[in-house]
Amino acid sequence: MAVSVSKQYMTSLVVILLFISLSSLSPTSTSHNCDPVEEEEEASSFGYVCHSNLQKCHTFAILRAKPPFYSLSDLSRHLGLDADEEYVPKGQLLLIPIECRCNGSIYEASLIKNCVKGDTFRSVSQSLQGLTTCLSIREKNPHISEDKLGDNIKLRLAIRCSCPQEGVSNASFLVTYPVGVRDSVSSLAVRFNTTEDAIVSANNKSGVVPLKPALIPLDHKPEKQGSRKRNPSKKKRSKMKLMIAVSSAIAGVCGLVTLMVFGYLHWKKETQIQTQTQKWISNKDPETRQLSLSIRTTSDKKISFEGSQDGSILDSHNTVGTTTPRKPVLEIYAFEELEKATENFSSSNHIKGSVYFGSLKGKDLAIKQVNADEMKRFDFGLLNDQSHYYNHNVIRVLGTCFREIDQDSYLVFEYARNGSLWDWIQNKLAIKNQFIESCYCFLAWKQRIKICHDVAIALKYMHRINYVHGNIKSRNIFLNEDLRGKVGNFGMSKCVTNELATEENLIESSLSPASDIFAYGIIVMEVLSGQTPDMLLGLQEVETTSLGTQETFVSEWSRLRRLLGDKEKLREVMDSTLGESYSVDSAFEIASIARDCTAEEAESRPSAVEIAERVSRLVDDDEDEEDEAVIDRESTLISESSYKPLVKKSSIID
């Protein structure tokens, strides 16, 4: 009986393997119908709107070299284009010259496709890599039945294209390019020798989306990538390749079993991670569960996109755009990955508190250990707004690591190489990098003003999305490699208590945008005076009267607020390390901002928008003065401290 069962089992296994191997050798079946769900989305976004001042233009579309278009001669044969017999290596680009015309309200270029046996509307659209759609082909050829496609049948194609708008764009060509999964705005700018801003502007101030076309603005005719003549000997080798393919198929059956085993093991590992994550998320609030729809593991190469909640995004100049953006996803890291990145959370990688430095796949990370309660309180809903990811003044949340409910989890942030503003103002650990010896340094005046501006822009962004940070302080302002300020702990307002809250907030146990403004004023006072918040909020003043010297209990920051309004006495509170390397007018204006921000009545404090505008004018004025100073420097020796941080003798800092 056991022998019979064993034989039946072996017979079934052989049949299954034979079926799988035959399926792998057979051509992949293609649907003969356009997908109504996909095509409905394509129909709503197909084509670029015509400009009234330009009805047609000569431009180009791009295809990647892959079947059925491996050469320019393939384009000639299938699309009726003039081309020589050049072979292009797989993955490189084929240029298609097209005439882009305004058809109604949409630009399009007309081409004729010479069908071959087995073609369908969908297979044709897929071979053109997004330059047209299945639905468009069907609409352009209403009298052709898809079931009757075959040799010598000609299909009319509408290729997506656009013409430069005169007076708006400096580009001579807008080239239609099929975006690949690994493409990004920055990589395309490098590849086509243009700028990121030009690409974003050409695509209606939105990014590029994989597997969909994008417009690449060029001020010159695009050049073909390196191609080579097809080697005639390849025809002679074709039969040999066929024999090798058949032999490989037989060997593939054996290899398939091995792949199935490894695939199962990989699937099991991924399932464990996902199960662990979903178990954690299932006990969380609805916002966290909603976010789980858009997170992915690091091994998942498929990228998903989603529009932001308010349909707007901050561009590179911190202005509000009008198009619906695409939201990058968070990564879910395995705990083993974070252990490797931090060298098993070694003391040498410890930054401060529960934060560790990590390096993973060539990227520096700040990895924060959080308990279950903190993770539950983290405001994941904020990450639905894509502008967080592209805001240069906020430390970005890059990913998470969820563990069992009774274990600590992790938040992964971008790493700020130069530590916190507090480190620099207080001359401690000035360069907070594990691989550079600490030194005594100080920030020049212009750098301090720019950092104040960066923080103001961050507050402007956060208050625009109705988010109160609640923990604005110099320890949470981090400096990147260019010494530009970035606000940290974004999304953690419910996880911590504000140490610099105003008296009214301490009583009411509530936070508001005005409390962020007050904290910003304290930071500006630190930048001006070089004093710590404890000193600013302390009780220390000695007053001399006719009766002699006596102590009065007046807070230092109250005394500072009085001096901030007196231009003549302002030097008394300025950081002595600055010397004379600052503009008195500029210092008085920034002092006035600090005074206004720390007004006792919350209603009297300026908004983040107003602060950003005022500090922006100071930055512009300082840059104008610096331009003039550069000219004077040719004939006059001046202090270097006006232009870069002064580095004093290194010493060990406790």
UniProtKB/TrEMBL annotation:
Signal peptide: 1-25
Source taxon at top rank: Eukaryota
A GO CC annotation given for this chain: plasma membrane
Protein kinase domain mapped to chain residues: 324-619
Alphabetized GO MF terms: ATP binding; protein kinase activity
Region described as Disordered: 217-239
InterPro entries documented for this protein: Kinase-like_dom_sf (IPR011009), LysM (IPR018392), Plant_RLK_LysM (IPR052611), Prot_kinase_dom (IPR000719), Ser-Thr/Tyr_kinase_cat_dom (IPR001245)
A Pfam entry, by short name: PK_Tyr_Ser-Thr
Ranges of Basic residues composition bias in the record: 227-239
Keywords recorded for this protein, A-Z: Kinase, Membrane, Signal, Transferase, Transmembrane, Transmembrane helix
Transmembrane parts of this sequence: 242-265
Keyword Signal (UniProt): yes
PANTHER family to which the protein is assigned, alphabetical: LYSM-DOMAIN RECEPTOR-LIKE KINASE-RELATED, PROTEIN LYK2
Name of the molecule in the record: Protein kinase-like domain superfamily
Lineage, top ranks: Eukaryota, Viridiplantae, Streptophyta, Embryophyta, Tracheophyta
